[in-house]
User: Which sequence fits this backbone?
């Protein structure tokens, strides 16, 4: 049976519908496990650490997903409902097994099955490699979105890239970050299904020329291209106990012909193989997020590869229902662009409609701007993507033609609306002029979309007042806010089983799909018994984390200490440096004997620096050097620890956030678009110490000012001060700060490594320091002191902790996805076909 055309699946459909569902019992799961382990994987003896054990469990679970997956697909196909393609260069999925079992509702049954043969499910979970196909917040957000969409039964498909190497692994040598590749597929990835039948061809290079078609119309041909094959691999995305399974489709690049035979015959064997490598290189590695955008050709190839393959796939699906009449395409499909990374989808859709479907420009444009929606994730102007025109011309000549055409028409509109305002035209042009003209991808995304959103209220407001002001003035209706969230299935139910059990015992399980239900915990905030249980769970989670840290670093942390945590990518604007300065200050206080009433603290900092981000890497070295001094000084033993947590990733956060007591969200106001770690910590009962930045603002509003440790300058204050910012004077006027800077200057933390932290101390003293670290030092230190004071009052702290969880309801991606759906997507939930 051919599977290329969709009609031919019908026979299979009937069979599938008639096939009885697999039982969800321990007996059945054990039977399937044994089958896969012995007969498919061909293994006999069970060793706890064996990857095959994990694989066999996955296959048993996957069979159960597969039934639901087929039925979900069938229901969506039959109903021909409107759907969304979430286009993202990153999906930071982490591990999938625990989440799959939770969502299928067979965690207990699987556990029981394994126990019968003397195995522990937790060990099996630990065997899974993280699917680290993302850098940080933006990639993890995409993963949380998928979980929520499946849970809400929304027909949303994720489109991304199947990188052979995910986010690099970090280890430390002498306190320096060292990167290692992440060959996460090496032991196989049992979740994916290769779907060769849906492979697409993506063009690169070549040149364009015009010709007249049979009707005498002028058309463009993009010829002599180097074609690359895009092969999709599908990963099931189960909803929470609702029998829905959505799809994450990841594209892998391959040569169109395994060997270019002509070259091969001519003796060009190595050239032939090399061209195969060139194609496969496209999906070889995830780019780490650097401080500023750099124009790497391979990265542009990745972007176009994803956009083109995904659009063609969507059009294939559309035409299977509607033939080549694309007039209703925009009613059936919406593309959500996760940042500008896939924004090249705008001209690519135009190209496909015009060149392949022979639609005229005006109609193609109308379809495109009714189909595309763009989410911005950054306020840093230097992080806005631009691509050199010269690179486009070489790599994607046809796409460049189309961008020029979009720009010409757009500028024409502007000059009608604001005649003679050449400055505005220059500002708003999709092409940034200069010695190396470049395409402004964010402007392309805005012009080509019907919706532009930021990811937290403050961020969305700042976008319309700052970076995108001209566009917001032109099209106010396009701009909107969608505050981020996180999925409580992973970030509370799965990662904090003890707390979940307690919550469910008190208020029932509805919070798992309706997080606002957590409000019902408020009435226990002052209940001493409840507080005790709450606090003993936190302690157990701290012990679990301490064990993990001891295993990874050899450092023991007394679990009576306040766990003060900052984990996120290392970036100057996130100000890990400010946190480290506070650690130095506490150390200095201990040294000078001012520590009688000090609350013992473990300051835990984790995160990766982009390999090329020199300053960020130096901050890691600095933290490690300070940590070495603090942790080896007997005077500080009972009072202070500083830990750099190595190789921070999704699975690490699953251990860390349930154990955290203080959540550090200390970016310079106006720089962090939203933050999502802040939400995970809040949900797990940590108290935030934070600036009025990103979603912190909404977190504070939700939890109440009394239950949030606010410090630092506001966005307006930062902007006001900038002109007359004098960090030297601030340091001189502040005894504590002065002492800290003197310690640093004296080389106390780098005795045998002279000068290595000069750039750090200089950056703090620099009047043009964009992050204004010195400006917030005093307020940070004072607020940390307030945190310590509050921590001493156990009942008050527990009350705050409970209220943080209780009031975290709005930070679920279930809410975020409802907002996207109500305002942007307008999808109807998938109705499964009843049997
Ligand atoms: C940029 C680049 C440029 C070089 C190639 C790789 C790469 C990868 C990612 C990025 C952009 C990163 C933008 C980002 O991650 N923004 C974060 O998005 C989160 C989710 O909305 C948000 O919570 C964070 O505040 C925001 O920093």
Assistant:
């Amino acid at each position: 049976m051919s599977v290329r055309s969709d009609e031919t699946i019908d026979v299979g459909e009937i069979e599938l519908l008639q096939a009885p569902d697999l039982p969800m019992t321990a007996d059945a799961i054990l039977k399937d496990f044994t089958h896969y382990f012995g007969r498919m994987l061909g293994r006999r003896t069970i060793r706890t650490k064996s990857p095959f054990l994990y694989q066999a469990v996955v296959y048993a679970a996957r069979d159960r997903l597969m039934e639901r997956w087929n039925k979900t697909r069938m229901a969506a196909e039959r109903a021909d409902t409107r759907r969304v393609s979430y286009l993202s260069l990153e999906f930071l999925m982490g591990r999938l097994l625990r989440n799959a079992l939770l969502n299928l509702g067979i965690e207990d049954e699987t556990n029981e099955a394994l126990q019968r043969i003397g195995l522990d499910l937790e060990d099996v979970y630990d065997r899974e490699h993280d699917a680290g196909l993302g850098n940080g917040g933006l990639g993890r957000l995409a993963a949380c979105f998928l979980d929520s969409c499946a849970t809400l039964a929304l027909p949303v498909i994720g489109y991304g890239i199947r990188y052979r190497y995910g986010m690099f692994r970090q280890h430390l040598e002498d306190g320096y970050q060292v990167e290692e590749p992440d060959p996460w597929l090496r032991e196989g990835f049992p979740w994916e299904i290769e779907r060769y039948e849906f492979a697409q061809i993506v063009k690169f290079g070549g040149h364009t020329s015009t010709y007249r078609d049979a009707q005498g119309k002028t058309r463009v041909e993009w010829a002599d291209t180097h074609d690359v094959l895009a092969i999709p691999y599908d990963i099931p995305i189960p909803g929470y106990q609702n029998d829905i399974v959505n799809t994450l489709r990841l594209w892998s690049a391959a040569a169109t012909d395994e060997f270019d035979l002509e070259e091969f015959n001519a003796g060009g064997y190595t050239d032939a193989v090399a061209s195969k490598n060139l194609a496969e290189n496209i999906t070889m590695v995830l780019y780490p997020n650097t401080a500023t955008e750099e124009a790497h050709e391979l990265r542009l190839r990745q972007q176009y590869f994803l956009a083109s393959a995904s659009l063609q796939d969507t059009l294939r699906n559309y035409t299977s229902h509607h033939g080549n009449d694309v007039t209703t395409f925009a009613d059936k499909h919406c593309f959500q662009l996760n940042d500008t990374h896939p924004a090249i989808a705008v001209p690519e859709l135009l190209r496909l409609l015009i060149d392949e479907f022979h639609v005229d420009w005006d109609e193609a444009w109308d379809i495109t701007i009714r189909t595309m929606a763009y989410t911005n994730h950054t306020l840093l102007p230097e992080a806005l993507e631009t691509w050199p025109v010269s690179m486009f011309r070489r790599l994607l000549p046809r796409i460049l033609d189309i961008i020029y055409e979009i720009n010409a028409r757009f500028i024409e509109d502007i000059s009608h609306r604001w005649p003679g305002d050449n400055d505005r035209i220059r500002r708003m042009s999709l092409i940034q002029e200069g010695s190396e003209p470049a395409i402004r991808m964010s402007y392309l995304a805005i012009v080509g979309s019907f919706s532009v959103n930021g990811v937290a209220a403050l961020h969305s407001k700042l976008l319309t007042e700052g970076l995108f002001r001209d566009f917001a003035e032109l099209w106010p209706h396009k701009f909107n806010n969608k505050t981020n969230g996180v999925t409580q299935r992973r970030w509370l139910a799965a990662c904090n089983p003890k707390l979940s059990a307690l919550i469910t015992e008190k208020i029932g399980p509805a919070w798992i799909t309706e997080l606002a239900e957590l409000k019902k915990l408020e009435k226990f905030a002052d209940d001493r018994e409840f507080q005790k249980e709450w606090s003993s769970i936190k302690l157990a989670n701290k012990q679990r984390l301490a064990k993990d840290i001891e295993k990874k670093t050899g450092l023991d942390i007394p679990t009576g200490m306040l766990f003060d945590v900052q984990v996120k990518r290392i970036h100057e604007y996130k100000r890990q440096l400010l946190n480290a300065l506070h650690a130095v200050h506490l150390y200095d206080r201990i040294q000078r004997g001012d520590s009688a009433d000090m609350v013992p603290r473990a300051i835990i900092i984790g995160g990766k620096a982009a390999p090329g981000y020199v300053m960020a890497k130096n901050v890691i070295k600095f933290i490690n050097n300070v940590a070495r001094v603090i942790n080896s000084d007997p005077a500080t033993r009972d009072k202070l620890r500083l830990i750099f947590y190595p190789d921070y990733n999704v699975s690490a956060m699953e251990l860390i956030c349930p154990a955290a007591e203080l959540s550090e969200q200390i970016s310079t106001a106006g720089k962090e678009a939203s933050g999502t770690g802040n939400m995970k910590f809040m949900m797990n009962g940590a108290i935030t110490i934070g600036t009025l930045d990103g979603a912190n603002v909404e977190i504070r509003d939700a939890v109440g000012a009394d239950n949030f440790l606010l410090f630092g300058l506001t966005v307006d204050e930062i902007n006001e001060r900038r002109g007359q910012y004098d960090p030297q004077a601030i340091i001189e006027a502040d005894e504590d700060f002065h002492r800290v800077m003197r310690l640093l200057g004296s080389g106390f933390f780098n005795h045998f490594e002279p000068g290595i932290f000069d750039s750090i101390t200089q950056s703090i003293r620099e009047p043009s320091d964009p992050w204004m670290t010195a400006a917030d030092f005093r307020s940070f230190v004072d607020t940390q002191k307030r945190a310590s004071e509050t921590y001493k009052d156990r009942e008050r702290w527990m009350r705050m902790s409970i209220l943080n969880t209780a009031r975290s309801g709005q930070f679920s991606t279930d809410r975020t996805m409802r907002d996207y759906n109500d305002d942007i997507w307008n999808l109807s939930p998938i109705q499964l076909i009843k049997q």
Summary: The longest helix spans residues 51-79. The radius of gyration is 28 Å. The chain is about 50% helix and 15% strand.
